[in-house]
């Protein structure tokens, strides 16, 4: 017994030298594995109760044999003729005590040469010869004495094993005598019960009979023939699973969690064989708790938890079990005894349908077919490689390495959020600042948390990640986003809100924000309907170029050359809403990618799909009876289209050549939008002091009166410039045959100056007008009559004036231009400067 190892060698002392135990034992993996015996023999369980007595340097061989014999033959009153014993072939001492104490004849003391009768914990450590007691269940049962070829039969059943711990193995070649010789024994409670209850078979003892009867009552198939075999497996595995889960182990794809999953899936298959369509195991649990809950209160304490896990796992495996079995049946139609199942098929069963390899082996056993294990293992290796290669990379070598490591160690995270909003999961890894850490303790710290399973959807396929809470007895963690990494690892983006912190190995309650998820769902399902409607209204050329499903809006990019017309948008909106109102059921089916595409499901070009895909369908299409929308999709969806409520497009625009983006909102967000629009209208009504119905007329009126007023103001301002045309000509300066009007004004709208200058220059010949407007800055307006623009370019002149006034130049057309200036001190010099400039220009044009 492992926990006493150092006591046997004397390294550790306890305040007692003798002990008796009752131990929960599990033999379903590692050194002891009886999983595949369960159901086939009368004596094996995965989980059983082992009774033992121990001596640590106290009593030894003689006394141990004496106690065993006395208990069996006197206390339990088992007939001596029914018992046989074995000893290790060199252990004369043990043989002589059996003779002396039990008075057994030589043919009842069987000497065994093999390691079956020499116990050791490993390559080194305490060890010693064994002596076992066998019970003869009678010659009507097949089987031979230990050491014979028929020893594995169920006639002679080992009920008790004693280990005489007298040596210590130091290395491969050195074995020393232990100073304090010890005793370690084990007797299976179920096997001794069978003897005491006068039944041959462990599965006929009271406890198992009650479980099997109860199951029979629920399943309603007689527990006889082949069915009996399934009943036994179910009863045994129910115990094993319940006890493992009560110890905090939950099904997963690694370590102890996988030992549990293998047992669970084996029993689920047998429930399936018995024809049970609904999950069965969790319905049997109350009976087990009734029978064993008093002796093991942990079963009572964890009953709800166990029940939940049993049901979840069964629901999940049921999804793929039947199709996996079908595949296997097809493969086996022509299989001959002693042939092999290809490793590829075994891998597909494992990878796609969740069949643990030993489950496939068990199914094949009856047909005498084995698995090509080598090619199976190669496939497993290839899968790891593929995952590594398909990882696009986060461009951060350090983080990439972490995800590879996590994927190699734990595989992908189980996403259970299609059916569950809340579950118990186990923390497998924590990442803070791109580094794996064992725990997170500081409040407000941000980190990533990876668990074996989760209801949180990791951002993928356009759908954003979930938010929610992760809680343990010691802390509350807020999940602000959920991401998906290589090979399907789901990482919760967390902030430690309250409590002492979290560490690897903690069990926690994972709860998503249900309302947030519901909003993600409605926007996702609406996206599918929109996609189908776009196909129908715009044409088959429309393909999805991108999609975003957030909780408060959706965005859908399509390939389409022109912008959508107002009528098209209204039509699309109406059709989407019509399908929503049909309120048809949204169904999700798992199928092979090939079948899915054949059924007409829309697959995205260039997207990689697993060999098994989810196909989401919604809406009924009257024309060909098929679903209106049929898409391959891993996202989460509403139950009925009516759940979406209402759909409203809020914008449509181009994001690249030939790609249009449609943005829309659904459900309560349409209401929000309406409220927002309402309040705008209300504000307008109150500002304009009118009711909504006449708002449009009122605004039209305002716009036209504004236009009128602007025109009036302009006219007024022009008149204020005091520029009578005749007067202008009189005021103009003659320079080299052209007329110049120069005017300095203050704070006049430049637009008006431009208008005025343009008007006058159009009416008069050979005229150059220059306005300098003095406002917060200086501005220059130059206009030139058409006949002379080849001599005086308004733009160039404005530029020269602007530079003279410290401005940056600017320019404009040949007949009208505006520019700026800053230096007011130059204004006095300006008239002469302009004259000079014009003179130069005219001289130039004469040359
Ligand atoms: P067997 O050869 O029948 O499998 P074992 O040699 O594996 O038995 P031990 O390892 O000596 O058994 O275990 C000690 C005792 O525990 C056994 O004598 C038996 O009473 C009980 N026991 C062992 N394995 C199982 C099992 N799978 N189910 C029920 N009881 C068991
Ligand atoms: Mg065994």
Automatic annotation (TrEMBL):
Binds 1 zinc ion per subunit. GO terms for biological process: alanyl-tRNA aminoacylation; negative regulation of DNA-templated transcription. The keyword Lyase does not apply. GO terms for molecular function: alanine-tRNA ligase activity; aminoacyl-tRNA deacylase activity; ATP binding; tRNA binding; zinc ion binding. Residues 1-676 form the Alanyl-transfer RNA synthetases family profile domain. One of its GO terms (cellular component) is cytosol. It is an enzyme of class 6 (ligase). Zn(2+) binds at residues 524, 528, 633, 637. The keyword DNA repair does not apply. CDD domains: AlaRS_core. Catalyzes the attachment of alanine to tRNA(Ala) in a two-step reaction: alanine is first activated by ATP to form Ala-AMP and then transferred to the acceptor end of tRNA(Ala). Also edits incorrectly charged tRNA(Ala) via its editing domain. Consists of three domains; the N-terminal catalytic domain, the editing domain and the C-terminal C-Ala domain. The editing domain removes incorrectly charged amino acids, while the C-Ala domain, along with tRNA(Ala), serves as a bridge to cooperatively bring together the editing and aminoacylation centers thus stimulating deacylation of misacylated tRNAs. Belongs to the class-II aminoacyl-tRNA synthetase family. Alax-L subfamily. HAMAP family: Ala_tRNA_synth_B. This is Alanine--tRNA ligase.
């Amino acid at each position: 017994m492992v926990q006493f190892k150092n006591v046997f060698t004397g390294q550790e002392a306890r305040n007692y030298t003798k002990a008796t135990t009752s131990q929960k034992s599990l033999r379903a993996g590692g050194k002891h594995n009886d999983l595949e015996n369960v159901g086939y023999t009368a004596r094996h369980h995965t989980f059983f109760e082992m009774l033992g007595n121990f001596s640590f340097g106290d009593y030894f061989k003689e006394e141990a044999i004496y106690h065993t014999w006395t208990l069996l033959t006197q206390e339990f009153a088992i007939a001596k003729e029914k018992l046989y014993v074995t000893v290790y072939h060199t252990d004369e001492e043990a043989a002589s005590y059996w003779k002396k104490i039990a008075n057994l004849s030589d043919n009842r003391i069987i000497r065994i040469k093999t390691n079956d009768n020499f116990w050791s914990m490993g390559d080194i450590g305490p060890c010693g010869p064994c002596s076992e007691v066998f019970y003869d269940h009678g010659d009507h049962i097949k089987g031979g004495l230990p050491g014979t070829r028929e020893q594995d039969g169920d006639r002679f059943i080992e009920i008790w094993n004693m280990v005489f711990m007298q040596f210590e193995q130091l290395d491969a070649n050195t074995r020393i005598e232990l100073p304090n010789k010890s005793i370690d024994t084990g007797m299976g409670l179920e096997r001794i019960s069978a003897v005491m209850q006068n039944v041959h078979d462990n599965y006929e003892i009271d406890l198992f009979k009650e479980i099997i009867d109860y199951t029979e009552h629920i399943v309603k198939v007689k527990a006889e023939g082949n069915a009996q075999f399934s009943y036994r497996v179910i009863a045994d595995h129910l115990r094993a699973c319940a006890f493992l889960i009560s110890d905090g182990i939950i099904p997963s794809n690694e370590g102890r969690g996988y030992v549990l999953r293998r047992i669970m899936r084996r029993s689920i298959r047998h429930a399936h064989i018995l024809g049970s369509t609904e999950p069965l195991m969790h319905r049997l649990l109350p009976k087990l708790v009734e029978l064993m809950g008093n002796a093991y209160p942990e079963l009572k304490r964890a009953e709800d938890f166990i029940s939940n896990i049993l049901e979840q796992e069964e629901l999940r495996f049921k999804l793929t079990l039947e199709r996996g079995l079908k595949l296997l049946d097809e493969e086996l139609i022509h299989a001959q005894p002693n042939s092999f199942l290809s490793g590829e098929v075994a891998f597909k069963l494992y990878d796609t349908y969740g069949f643990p390899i030993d489950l496939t082996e068990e199914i094949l056993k009856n047909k005498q077919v084995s698995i090509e294990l080598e090619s199976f293992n190669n496939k497993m290796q290839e899968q790891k490689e593929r995952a590594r290669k398909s990882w696009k990379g986060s461009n951060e070598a350090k983080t990439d390495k972490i995800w590879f490591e996590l994927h190699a160690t734990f595989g992908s995270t189980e996403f259970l959020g299609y059916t569950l909003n809340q579950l118990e999961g186990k923390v497998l890894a924590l990442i803070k600042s791109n580094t794996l850490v064992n725990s997170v303790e500081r409040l407000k710290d941000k980190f990533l948390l990876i668990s074996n399973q989760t209801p949180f959807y990791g951002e993928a396929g356009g759908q954003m990640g979930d938010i929610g809470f992760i809680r343990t007895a010691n802390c509350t963690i807020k999940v602000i986003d959920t991401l998906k990494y290589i090979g399907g690892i789901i990482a919760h983006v967390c902030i430690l809100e309250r409590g002492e912190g979290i560490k690897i190995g903690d069990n926690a309650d994972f709860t998503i924000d249900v309302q947030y998820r519901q909003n993600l769902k409605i926007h996702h399902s609406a996206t599918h309907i929109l996609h189908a409607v776009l196909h129908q209204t715009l044409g088959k050329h429309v393909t999805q170029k991108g999609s975003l499903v957030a909780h408060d809006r959706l965005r859908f990019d399509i390939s389409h050359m022109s912008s959508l017309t107002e009528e098209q948008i209204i039509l699309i909106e109406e059709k989407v809403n019509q399908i929503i109102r049909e309120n048809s059921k949204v169904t999700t089916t798992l199928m092979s990618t090939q079948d899915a595409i054949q059924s007409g499901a829309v697959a995205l070009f260039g997207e990689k799909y697993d060999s098994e895909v989810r196909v989401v369908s919604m809406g009924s299409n009257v024309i060909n009876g098929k679903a209106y929308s049929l898409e391959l999709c891993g996202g989460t969806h509403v139950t009925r289209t009516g759940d979406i409520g209402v759909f409203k497009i809020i914008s449509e625009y181009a994001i690249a050549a030939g790609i249009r983006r449609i943005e829309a909102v659904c459900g309560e967000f349409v209401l929000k939008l309406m409220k927002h629009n309402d309040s705008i209208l209300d504000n307008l009504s109150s500002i304009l002091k009118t009711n909504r119905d006449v708002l449009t007329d009122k605004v039209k009126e305002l716009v036209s009166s504004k236009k009128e007023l602007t025109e009036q103001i302009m006219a007024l301002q022009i008149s204020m410039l005091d520029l009578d045309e005749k007067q202008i000509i009189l005021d103009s300066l003659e320079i080299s045959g052209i007329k110049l009007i120069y005017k300095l004004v203050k704070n006049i709208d430049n637009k008006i100056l431009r208008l005025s200058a343009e008007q006058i220059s159009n009416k008069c010949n050979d005229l150059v007008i220059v306005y300098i407007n003095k406002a917060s800055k200086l501005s220059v307006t130059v206009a030139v009559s058409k006949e002379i623009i080849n001599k005086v370019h308004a733009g160039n002149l404005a530029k020269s004036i602007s530079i003279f006034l410290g401005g940056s130049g600017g320019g404009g057309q040949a007949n009208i231009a505006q520019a700026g200036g800053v230096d007011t001190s130059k204004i006095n010099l300006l008239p002469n400067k302009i004259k000079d400039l014009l003179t130069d220009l005219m001289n130039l044009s004469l040359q």
